[in-house]
Amino acid sequence: MAMKTVEESHVGISCYISNLPGFRGILKQRYSDFIVNEVDRDGQVVHLSSLDAPPEEEQQKSVQETGTNTSESDATIVTSYASLLDSFKSLAGDSNAAHLEEFLNQVNAGDDKSVAPLVLSPDSNKSHRTAVHNFFKGNFKFLVTDTVDGPDASSKCIRVRLNSGGPNNNGRDSKKRKERGDKPFDSRGSKSWPEALGKFLRFHLYKENKDTQEALGVIGKMLGIQSRSFGFAGTKDKRAITTQRVTVYKQLVSRVASLNERLFGIKVGDFCYVNEGLVLGQLSGNRFTITLRGVVADSEDTIKASADALGRHGFINYFGLQRFGSGSVPTHLIGAALFRGEWELAVDMILDPRDGEKEAIAKARKYYKDRKDVEGTLRQLPRYLVAERAVLQNLKRSPGNYVQALKAIPRTLRMMYIHSYQSFLWNHAASTRVQKYGTEQVVLGDLVYCKESPTGKITEIVASECDDDSGDRCDSNIEDEVSAEDIQEESNSFVKVVTAEDLNSGCYTIEDVILPMPGSRVIYPTNDVAKVYHDLADKDRISLTECVHNVKEFSITNVTGSYRRVFQKPINFEWELLTYTDGTKPLVETDLDKIKSKPVNGVRPVDAPDAKNEDNMRQLESSNDDINLNTDDNEIEGEEVILPQDESVSGSNSQDSQTALKLSFTLPTSCYATMAIRELLKTSTSVAYHKTLNQ
């Protein structure tokens, strides 16, 4: 069932807006060719402009002495529970007590994210289960329990989890947690924090060739705090240079700023104190600066025409390849297995060997596939394979309970599989819409957001992927790929089917056309596009209206669905042709370069040393600059492509001189910059393809 690599056609990416010819260009030959700057909700592009702590911070030195020492914090949650374990053994038996002791030891290790829930042995006695619940409630304040289905339909099990609020907190759903806006953070810090300072230090995080969680993990380790101390609006590319806003709970700016001397590939700056921490979704988009190297085209006119067309007409708003995973086991196939209720198959696909992984990981995966030795595989798998380890740790405690093993995966990760299958259907529907009805006008039966007071047949827009009673919060970030809700419009927006009257009035344009992400609360177009959803789902033995199993969170009837615009224009689009001779040098100044005042060597605009040639620099204002943007995207994943340079034939008389195309534009969150590049080049955006360009 696994593919060698995921190709664009496999996931519904097959059409273009323009009929212009493409040209050759290498995407991400160096990670410095892909620069991403977050855009905040006020439309301001986030830049790193200063590494220094504000002068007034010097007045807080005395606070630093007493307020930021975390060496004696509550890092050790568990000390000694010997007597409680003896009591639990009397209540629940030796086996459950042994599993609980192992669970507590994992919690005591301090890495909360790697601690999978503990599922106790099946218990059919409700009164006894109540006694167990009360035992945990009375003795382990940092743990929470609930009841889940057992290995067969008639049995129940108690699940024990780490309370996300921490040992000194009242838990995820407590009144105190709700009052602070449900913003998770490590509560360790100053017990005497100055009232004059906001509780959160906000700073700009600049990172090179590191993902957001990795960078914050390094900073957190230096500060001696856990990752939940930090807040951010969205994850950013690893294979890129990115700048974004971050907040950290109760840390002095002088202490954080001092880390710059020890940080490699990471810098922090532009500090200020604020009263609220950042949460996922608090941004309006991202500003991309992308350099395509080794550009080869029939003529410069071909490049200019294609770049102008991208700015004016945009691209099909496909979910990019990274939405479906970078390995040979596509995430949408795992999602399909979950919708069908094929739990063991889903587990096997998550653990199966896949192409391109490190030898040690490949060996561990093959070991499990051949021997099904859970403990032996766990010893071999690295800790950062969170989903795989969560599954195996649960199977170790409850052999054969594949449903519970899947539920042990952190919600953000397990929902990635569901969203991936929805995206698979959406991409195919978008291609069908383009193939049948073109890219120039609205047609009868299309879906649009209603521009007027609701009349006729409309439906209120869906703004959540999870029902309110789903039993678990709907996380707004899929890590670290995927954003949870891809298009969240204003709550008073409505969706309607385009009628003949609408067509006659001319009030809707092609830019208004939307398509649904399948779910229980969406409507479908009333033209031929709707059929592709059901045909593809039927082919995968999935019903979009009924669930074949009783596991609610993996049910299509429990996923509410959403809507997504079919066509997207890049905002504030600019492009420029450059020539270069040294392929090892960066072609664009980064925020850090500007701080250090280091010029970028070896770059000049084609035929225009002053970089002001109007034929080579264009700025096009998009008509949808005011689009409402609420979630974050997760751009291209995969290995950095380092290739030898070849000769460009575009605008250069020197054998050693090559052409590059620099693009700058802003996209709403959940839009994929790689899909804009695809429209320009008319070639695949896969990492594997770009590796072959110079072979």
Describe this protein's structure.
It is a single chain. The strands form five sheets. Strands 1, 2, 6, 7, 8, 9, 10, 20, 21, 22 and 23 form an eleven-stranded mixed beta sheet that branches. A five-stranded antiparallel beta sheet has the order 13-16-12-17-18, covered by helices on one side. It starts with 23 loop residues before the first strand and ends with a helix. The longest helix is centred in the middle third of the chain and has 27 residues, at 411-437. A hairpin with a 3-residue loop joins strand 14 and strand 15 (482-483). It is globular and about 80 Å long. Helix 2 runs antiparallel to helix 3 and helix 2 (82-92) packs antiparallel against helix 4. The protein contains 20 helices and 23 strands. The protein has 695 residues and is an alpha+beta fold.
Task: Give the topology, please.
Blueprint: E1 24-26, E2 34-39, H1 61-67, H2 82-92, H3 94-108, E3 118-119, H4 126-139, E4 143-149, E5 156-162, H5 175-179, E6 200-208, H6 212-223, E7 230-232, E8 241-249, H7 253-257, E9 266-274, E10 285-296, H8 300-313, E11 315-316, H9 331-340, H10 343-351, H11 359-371, H12 374-380, H13 386-397, H14 402-407, H15 411-437, E12 447-449, E13 458-460, E14 477-478, E15 482-483, E16 494-497, H16 500-505, E17 513-517, H17 529-539, E18 562-565, E19 567-568, E20 571-580, H18 591-596, E21 604-605, E22 618-620, E23 658-668, H19 673-681, H20 687-691
Parallel strand pairs: 2-8
Antiparallel strand pairs: 1-10, 2-10, 3-5, 4-5, 6-8, 6-9, 7-8, 10-23, 11-19, 12-16, 12-17, 13-16, 14-15, 17-18, 20-21, 20-22, 20-23
